[in-house]
TrEMBL record:
It is a single-pass membrane protein. It comes from Paragonimus westermani. Belongs to the LDLR family. Disulfide bonds join C93-C105, C100-C118, C135-C147, C142-C160, C154-C169, C175-C187, C182-C200, C194-C209. This is Uncharacterized protein. GO terms for biological process: endocytosis. It is found in: Endomembrane system; Membrane. Keywords: Disulfide bond, Endocytosis, Glycoprotein, Membrane, Receptor, Repeat, Transmembrane, Transmembrane helix. One of its GO terms (cellular component) is plasma membrane.
Amino acid sequence: PPKPLPPERQYLRPYSSFRLECRSGQPNVAPTITLENGTTVEQLPRFQVSRPTVDLVVAFIPDLTERDNGMRLSCSVPMAAARVTELIIQSSCPSSEWMCRDGQCVGSHRFCDGRVDCRDGSDEREPHCVSADRCRPGQFLCRSGECISADRRCNGRQDCYDGSDETDCVTPVRCLPGQFACASGECLSLSVQCNGQQDCRDGSDEHGCRKLQY
């Protein structure tokens, strides 16, 4: 396989936008733009994606934030080395703080905490915060904007491109013999697992159950 090319770095300010054009160079070959974990940009609501021609895909992302620092976008074409672009977000704020839209610096942990800390209120609005009602019931909203199945949260594998499905997870609990640990942390009897009723707070006792057919 072709050797990967070193990433091309793009230096950008918070709240700036970025446009990436990816061409295959072959009339009937469609290129793709993906992130490091294989997610295509079409799967992420933050990206505006267009395909003017078969051999060209254009991805536009507005309102970049410090959370996007280090994001790598791969322009991939079959049988060719991927061209990687790495986004470097340069902020004048200290490393533990993020920039409000008006330039004020506020602790990164204060963004999306339900309380306005930026003078302009931008710490509680998009692009930092996304509305949970964009997902269907049974789905988990990633901080990066996409919706994934709720049973993929805290499964030890990064499914959200920003890894937010694996943050704030309950440490695995050691249960007694004859018990199992719910993903939400409590121990229940094995007899209630896959009994058709939700016994764990998060319903994880009914995940991955197979219906028996007679």
